User: Fold this.
Amino acid sequence: MDHASVLEHAALERTYVPASISWAQLEPGAFDVAFGFINASPLELSYRTFNLGFKAEANIAPHKTVIGIVADSGTKARWFGTAVNQHMIAATHRGIDLLTEGPGSFYQATIDRTALARDFSKAPDAIALLEYLERVALVRDPLHAARLRTFLRGIFSVDNRSCATAPRMAPARAVSGTLVPLLASAVERFDERVVEPSKCLSRRLIAVRKCEAFMRERVDATLTLLDLSELAGMRSRSLINAFEAITGCSPMDYLKRLRLNGVHRALRSANKAGTRIIDVATAWGFWHMGHFASDYRAMFGESPSQTLLS
Assistant:
């Protein structure tokens, strides 16, 4: 994630396959993220709060499982297209697909299954948790979601959407020893509380993901709504409805935001002396420099040249 520090990069790369991490800012403004991270092996705990909506995708690293909950009732998010709230718990060892709207905050527990089996080999709760972690689910469970949130809020000493990087319970064994039973209890009945997406939502998600892949393959090409409609096998109005349901914006607006993020990443990593902004912009499909500069400033709160020179 370009906007976070070296520590945040390291925390992400311990949980996710680095090459699979895809991130895009979806709302205009200067993006800001605050985070806290605790290594309580075999668990890694994190808290993140964002001031703007974003889209994130990644594959989970081998032998890891991620369990996540939203940190407050004001967070608006979609997990693989399904709306989530403070009463839900998500668990996956495959990948994440998260889209948010407006400010939001999340707690996450990453479990190293190999280390859990090794360090807690005789603990009944750990043995049960390892069995349950083979499941991938989004569940509605207000009781256990609240218990997990209360425990994690206490560790991170969260106050007004900020977070501490040092836990109150310093010994890793103490943190894990308390949280493992909580997690085991939370995921024990996942099969009974699973939230199934509707068939309509599933069709829409498939169409949007197909269009997203097409967009990424043709970053410098002129794409139209008709092109995307033909690809998705949907009428234009149906595709617009699908995008608005999944991403919160129209297909063409979403395409523009993805491309603006591509330019932003390219400028941040470019050679300052040998890079021309017009070359980077056209490589990402922007041909009218006046419109591009205006859209870029509105999205990121700075001009392309400021990004390049920062």
Q: What stands out?
A: The radius of gyration is 21 Å. Residues 230 and 236 are 9 Å apart (CA to CA).
